[in-house]
Design a protein that fits this description.
alpha+beta
Length: 152
């Protein structure tokens, strides 16, 4: 694959793997304490007595880690991109301390812009699974990408 991928290089069905992301209890507690301070995320005793039977990660923590993995892996290389929206975000299974998450990123649709020929959009499906292969989170991500620049 080229170092940088542009809209013109992409087609439906292309896939990239992400992860693994190891879920550490101290990180789960730290994130939730600051951003999602619900008992099932921050209080081990309350979480143990609750419906999940123990601490679970905030879905926003998982989403942030998936974003970080995307940025660090840079599947499109140095090509500038812009996230436009997320649709159908689903937290489908609790994420627990000790879980190891993997991510499958798949191109669903590539759409050149009708009004701006220097760009277009890519619709991607993100599927996050734990070490048992259970889907824990999924969403659709619409991303704006430029077309390949004309040779100088």
């Amino acid at each position: 694959m080229p170092t940088s991928l542009y809209l013109d290089d992409l087609e439906a069905g292309m896939r990239w793997q992400g992860g693994p992301i190891d879920m550490v209890e101290a990180d789960i507690l730290r994130f939730a304490t600051e951003f999602d301070p619900q008992p099932m995320h921050i209080d081990p005793a309350a979480a143990a007595a609750g419906r999940f039977g123990g601490i679970i990660a905030s879905g926003w923590h998982v989403a942030a880690l998936v974003m970080r993995d995307f940025v660090e892996r840079a599947p499109f290389g140095e090509t500038p991109l812009l996230g436009l929206k997320i649709d159908d975000l689903q937290w489908r299974h609790p994420v627990r301390p000790g879980d190891r998450l993997d991510i499958l990123r798949e191109v669903i649709e590539v759409t050149p812009s009708r009004s701006k020929p220097d760009r277009g959009t890519v619709l991607m499906r993100m599927t996050v699974t734990n070490q048992a292969g259970i889907v824990v989170m999924s969403f659709l991500n619409l991303i704006q990408l430029p077309t390949r620049p004309a040779a100088a």
